[in-house]
Design brief:
about 140 residues; 4 strands; single chain; elongated; two-stranded antiparallel ribbon; two-stranded antiparallel sheet; alpha+beta
């Protein structure tokens, strides 16, 4: 038989003995399609998130780098400023303590001259007795 006379669903096969025979096929009756050659690739648009990330990455990295350089440059000044601030706090605390002591002494001298001397004599008779007393101003 010629290959044009073979009905669909039937194939010509070669047996192990070398003879040719017709057999029903279980697979596709048509020969497999030839692979299509790849065409010219079509450019895909770049997603917005990829553009944003690509623009932000060097900006953030540069900002972190500049911050590190700024801190390393300012570190000696920041240390000196913190020492100056602690010195100022210590000076204010010492000055206020000295002012409080001075004000207390001045007030004591002023009020000591104006304060009257008072003596009291209190007597009571018995455990639950009524107390009597005298006040003397000097």
């Amino acid at each position: 038989m010629r290959t044009e006379e073979i009905p669909p669903g039937v194939q010509e096969v070669i047996l192990p003995s070398g003879e040719r025979a017709l057999a029903y096929s279980t697979g596709p009756t048509n020969p497999p399609p030839e692979p299509v050659a790849p065409g010219v690739p079509v450019a895909q648009p770049i997603p917005a998130w990829a553009k944003t990330t690509a623009l932000l990455a060097p900006t953030v990295g540069g900002g972190i780098g500049m911050a590190a350089v700024g801190l390393s440059t300012a570190a000696p000044g920041l240390i000196a400023m913190s020492h100056a601030l602690w010195s100022a706090v210590a000076l204010i605390a010492t000055g206020s303590a000295a002012a409080a002591i001075l004000i207390g002494r001045v007030r004591a001298r002023i009020t000591a001259a104006q304060r009257p001397h008072i003596t009291q004599h209190i007597t009571a008779t018995g455990f639950f007795g009524r107390a009597n007393g005298t006040i003397n101003h000097h």
